[in-house]
Amino acid sequence: MISTEYLYLMLGCFIVTWIPRILPFAFAKRMQFPEKFRLFLDYLPMCILTALLVQNLLSVSAGKAPVLNIQEIIACVPALIVGIYTKDLMKIVVTGIITIALIRFFV
């Protein structure tokens, strides 16, 4: 059985996650932004995804040059090909997950 403290913890985590991540979208739909600001916002998802991708492709140790993660780079190739042909984010993510799972299973 789940204790009440655990349920309170889960509820607190839900609220803390929901407020900064979901609530702004509810307000942003009702607001009119200037064209330049909307153009800036259009590039944010791609910038964030690129930063996450580069972070996973490189291993950085203090005082050393970054090292490429070969398995992740190999997994990016099929995901990139699927992305070029389909331009569907869900297919890209699923392809990347399956590819890295297969690489890690067989290597």
TrEMBL record:
<keyword id="KW-1133">Transmembrane helix</keyword>
<protein>
    <submittedName>
        <fullName>AzlD domain-containing protein</fullName>
    </submittedName>
</protein>
<keyword id="KW-0812">Transmembrane</keyword>
<feature type="transmembrane region" description="Helical">
    <location>
        <begin position="89"/>
        <end position="106"/>
    </location>
</feature>
<feature type="transmembrane region" description="Helical">
    <location>
        <begin position="6"/>
        <end position="27"/>
    </location>
</feature>
<keyword id="KW-0472">Membrane</keyword>
<dbReference type="Pfam" id="PF05437">
    <property type="entry name" value="AzlD"/>
</dbReference>
<dbReference type="InterPro" id="IPR008407">
    <property type="entry name" value="Brnchd-chn_aa_trnsp_AzlD"/>
</dbReference>
<feature type="transmembrane region" description="Helical">
    <location>
        <begin position="39"/>
        <end position="58"/>
    </location>
</feature>
